[in-house]
Amino acid sequence: MARIRFPDGFHWGAATAAYQVEGAWREDGKGESIWDRFAHTAGRIREGDTGDVACDSYHRFDEDIALLREMNLTSYRFSIAWPRIQPEGRGAVNAKGIDYYGRLVDALLAAGIRPLPTLYHWDLPQALEDVGGWTSRDTAGRFADYAEIVGRSLADRVRDFLIFNEPSIFLAMGYLAGLHAPGRRGLDQWLPASHVVNLAQGLAFQALRASSDDARIGSAFAFSPCEPMSDREEDAEAAERWHRVTNTWFLDPALGRGYPDVYRDDLPREMAVKSGDLRTVAAPFDFIGVNLYSRTGVSASRGGPLGVDANPAAPMGFDRGPRTDAGLEVWPDALFDMLMRLTRDYDAPEIEITENGCSYADGPDAKGRVNDHRRTDFHRGYLAATARAIEAGADVRGYHAWSLLDNFEWHQGYHERFGLTFVDFETGDRTLKESGRFYGEVAATGGFTT
Ligand code: GCO
What's the structural domain count of the chain? Predict the structure, then answer.
């Protein structure tokens, strides 16, 4: 038996996102978001599910905070819905929206829990989409205005901010594959949109910094170590190219390293990069948010714009570890490897694990207990990997389980359950799962025994 220990002051947290949990989609002056529009469009979401009610956290956040307390957690990562703050994505501020997040923050602070808001977890105001969305440069300026409002309203009580959640995912799913809102498809959408998001990130960084000198600012990126699926040289090269596109496309420009040099010569033109832009995208983050679920198997391929086949999930990809219900391989070394690579490549930055978790469908047994032992095993494995990385020199300050609650899992609707808490979507009732109890013990004692 060995004792896994975490440093004193380590942040023990759980994460959610506005559209996935809040519900109240048109209450108190909230504007329509691209996710409202998308989910209300027939055929987009599994079984026609929507986030109209979701976990009803807009009305039930006291229960959410009670769960955080029951698990002894010290950090809550949630996101702010831009269309609650500016219903049309520009102009006048909706006081009721600001008031909602102010009340949430105050209640967290009163419970001794650090608020960690994300400014953008994918719910762009539909009014901005109607005039070009993330492919329009103007959206970057609108996002900076919104960031300024959030800073002005909350920075007196909130110190830690995340700007974006997973730009690589929302752009790939929403602008390349068309599976997420706003359902656009094509490299000619993805390329300019990814540059506008980088511009927005730089401008929002400046706006938040202006609201408070000691704000601690980061973004949460989707990371997944890219591993060649064979020992062929060309697969190794493909894996490295894919790493630079998926893992660092939104990090390197922010840190002054420009766009990863992996693509075609005419890239800057296709992305509509203008002179001076590489200064605007600068965002010298105080910490890097790491969202990580699994590793990605990569092989060279003649098809596809990057000459790469990348397989994070079933039926392709690696399958040495067991698979979660979402088809991802359980592979704790993925987290260790990624933390160490960031530590090496970026000079030991401060890191917060902003998401890590798994989907399993377990529900209540006859006694009402949810014995989701596979989720407990998952967190044991990834937490042990985190502790190992800290010992090896990674500066990891916190860990946030995705998710506090079972919630609306994007185009999969309510089909995938990622929560430490079971949610009955008929009644909204919440039941802490056994994995939540385990995690609560870890948070209370600063470690666990293997
Ligand atoms: C993401 C988002 C979350 C998801 C989670 C599970 O990573 O896609 O940040 O909103 O719900 O990752 O897929």
Answer: 1
Whether 377 is in a domain gets the answer: yes
The CA distances from residue 114 to 15, 16, 32, in Å, are: 12, 14, 29
- Is residue 264 pLDDT above 70, yes or no? no
The contacts of residue 167 (CB under 8 Å, 6+ apart) are 194, 197, 198, 201, 219, 221, 249, 250
196 falls within a domain: yes
CATH code of 263's domain: 3.20.20.80
Give residue-wise pLDDT tens across range 353-382.
999 999 999 999 999 999 999 999 999 999
pLDDT of residue 261: 79
What is the reported pLDDT for 314?
56
Q: Which of 250, 293, 355 to mutate to test the pocket of ligand 1 (most atoms within 8 A of CB)?
A: 355
* Cα 450 to ligand 1 centre (Å): 28
Spatial distance between the Cα atoms of 134 and 171, rounded to a whole number of angstroms: 9
Q: How many angstroms does the Cα of residue 63 sit away from the middle of ligand 1?
A: 22
355 as an active site residue: the answer is yes
**DSSP secondary structure letter of residue 130:** T
Q: What is the pTM (predicted TM-score) of this model? A: 0.97
User: Is 22 labeled as catalytic in the residue annotation?
Assistant: no
pLDDT in tens, 56-72: 999 999 999 999 999 99
Residues with Cβ < 8 Å from 424, sequence gap 6 or more?
430, 431
